Amino acid sequence: MFSVHKAVFPVAGIDTRFLPATKSSPKEMLPIIDKPLIQYAVEEAIAAGITELIFVTGRGKRVIEDHFDKSYEVEHVLMARGMQNLVEIVQDVMPRHAKCVYVRQAEPLGLGHAVLCAQKLIGDEPFAVVLADDLLEGQPPVLEQMIHLFSHYDCSVLAVEEFESSEAPDHGVIDGRHWDERVISVSGIVEKPAPENAPSNYGIAGRYVLMPGIFEHLRPVRPDAQGQIHLTPAIDSMLKDEQVLGYEFVGTRYDCGTKLGYLKATVDFALHHKEVRDPFGAWLHSRVGDVRG
């Protein structure tokens, strides 16, 4: 019986879709209301029982390390002003029962390369991979759902969702058959195929629970035409040796790597935020009326 205690957060990539906002600040630090995307991802991992958070960082990503570090100056100012509630909010950013570890990816060479950078820290344990720009909202949290499934089957699990056929070029697309409710036995996986070449309408949704055998299959993967080493060819190769499952998670995915997905997340989270939901909901209702008019 295996257990999952480590999660890899690949945060070294360069984002072009949100320029100039991401020129000096990572996309993972883009806020949804009052928390950055990376904090939502970390909170999801902590809720799933992860105790070691491995951030694969790169140039210009120091702000992520600072975010999860203690801020004496901010806490001192807030305490001097009698804002104890805000002190607690700042302190709660830092995971209390988990440790943060940082490893450098010298060049942003793709998701597969980022995972490979974490190999020495992972060792021979199963681990999770969490992409912060895929904001997944579920109860229980999606990674917790996946680890529960992993503990039952003792094999790698990929979070998947159904998509429109025209969206195939935006996904790693799986092939396979349904084993059980929401569980797909994966027989193949293709990175961003043309719609006519997609083996199914199920794509990976930014969450992975992987057996350590993935590293043997990652090392031989060659870069694509853009110099990127993808994770999907390694998973496809791993299928020769071991079982991989796709899991149709219970929840909602917001693709915050796109402007539209980011805006959808912002609106939905605002409508459930206790501080702003009522005035924002009223304002939004009036604006929808203006648009319809």
Automatic annotation (TrEMBL):
Belongs to the UDPGP type 2 family. The keyword Transferase applies. It comes from Paraburkholderia humisilvae. Keywords: Nucleotidyltransferase, Transferase. The keyword Transferase applies. It catalyses: alpha-D-glucose 1-phosphate + UTP + H(+) = UDP-alpha-D-glucose + diphosphate. Its EC number is 2.7.7.9. The gene is gtaB_1. It is an enzyme of class 2 (transferase). SUPFAM superfamilies: Nucleotide-diphospho-sugar transferases (SSF53448). Pfam families: NTP_transferase. One of its GO terms (molecular function) is UTP:glucose-1-phosphate uridylyltransferase activity. Residues 12-267 form the Nucleotidyl transferase domain. This is UTP--glucose-1-phosphate uridylyltransferase. GO terms for biological process: UDP-alpha-D-glucose metabolic process.
